[in-house]
């Protein structure tokens, strides 16, 4: 059980922490020092690496989360409201990530390949908004997961 908790927490930290870094640190600096074409290229390459870790995090979160629910609680019926809320928030985050990955990110890569700076810039803006929403959801899920039983 302790290994599952540790892996679950680590996966959440990697995903939510990565979004926090990208949104709160990298984005403002990139906007100040890079031209739009360079900024889109930076985001495309950065996201390609980060999204690999998000995929690993999602698999880890699902396996450890449902593993703990089954092994420790004996099913969802025996969990507290905060576990239900954490699960709902996490699944919503995953759906939003899937949308980002298979729609605007895919279009960003195509725009970069076609050297279409205007389209790439539009896609970076779209991804930024969706990552901002997912970051807020992620922070809420972290609060629920870490302190929900005490609320």
Account of the 3D structure:
- This protein is an all-alpha fold.
- It has one domain.
- Helix content is 88%, strand content 0%.
- The chain has 5 helices and no strands.
- Helix 1 runs antiparallel to helix 5, helix 2 runs parallel beside helix 5 and helix 3 packs parallel to helix 4.
Topology (SSEs and partners):
Layout: H1 2-33, H2 36-73, H3 81-102, H4 104-113, H5 117-147
Question: What can be said about this structure in brief?
Answer:
The protein is mostly helical and 151 residues long. The chain contains five helices and no strands. Helix content is 88%, strand content 0%.
Outline, from the CA principal axes? Answer: elongated
* First-last Cα distance: 23 Å
**Helix proportion:** over 70%
How many helical elements? 5
Looking at this protein, list some descriptive labels.
single chain, 151 residues, mainly alpha
